[in-house]
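Box 3.1 — From sequence to structure: Methyltransferase type 12
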Amino acid sequence: MENLYIHTAQLYDADPREVFSADIPFYLDRAKRLGGRVLELACGTGRITIPLAREGVEIWGLDYSKSMLEVLEKKLQKLSTESRQHLHTVYGDMTDFSLSEKFKLIFIPFRSFQSLETDEQALQCLSAVHNHLEEDGQFIINVFKPIKKLGAWWVDPAENLDYESVLESGEHVTRHSIRKRVDTERRLLFTDFIYRLDQDGELVQEFHDSIRLRYFYGDDIRRLITSSGFTIDEEYGWYDGNSVQDGREFIFVCRKSTGI
Ligand SMILES: C[S@@+](CC[C@H](N)C(=O)[O-])C[C@H]1O[C@@H](n2cnc3c(N)ncnc32)[C@H](O)[C@@H]1O
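Predicted structure (token representation):
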């Protein structure tokens, strides 16, 4: 399993792009409207989990990366006691977990579901979600929208700048990615991330991680969701409610199907 950000978790939150903040009010609004307990699968550093806990949402965050959870734990130390009491962290695998609570809202944000490389893993995850969702609960899942049929065109061995940003320490950080390889049969994208820290123009440190993401076509992911006992009620292409046709993402809002 590669997508655990072992070398770069401490830099994960430096991302200044809109895609890294636009989803927070969306999930907060859903959590508030539904009320009750919330579970975020693959919560990472708590980018979304923490703002929801701050707003009084009773939230569980589950992740399989000790490095990401360590960053989350450090951030928790800066929270008020009250907000901390709303947040429960779980070290676990989203394809195989068993919690004693059931949830009104379960969500898998920011394309984390694409870390699951096979249909089998995806279905195991969806089955665990089904088991933990209240009968009248909501399940929300996001993956990126494919731009066209996957092929060799996707590979680009050059370093491309994803973003640059400034850390609290004052250091300047850049993240580049290399689209290293594609497996068109298994529909997997292999990407390297390179983070560089510099101060006053001098390179201070460099960190590398690799990730593998599954490329889902719309109908594949819809089939996986609906064959797992869910009905898709709403589909969006962005967090402002934009349509799938016009947006860059797939955001599916689902509920348990009745009568199965
Ligand atoms: C792109 S990050 C998203 C983190 C956070 N949800 C956010 O929106 O910023 C993907 C996360 O998925 C986690 N992950 C990958 N596979 C997982 C699995 N099988 N079970 C739980 N977490 C997993 C990684 O450790 C990482 O924290």
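Summary of the box: The two ends are 33 Å apart (CA to CA).
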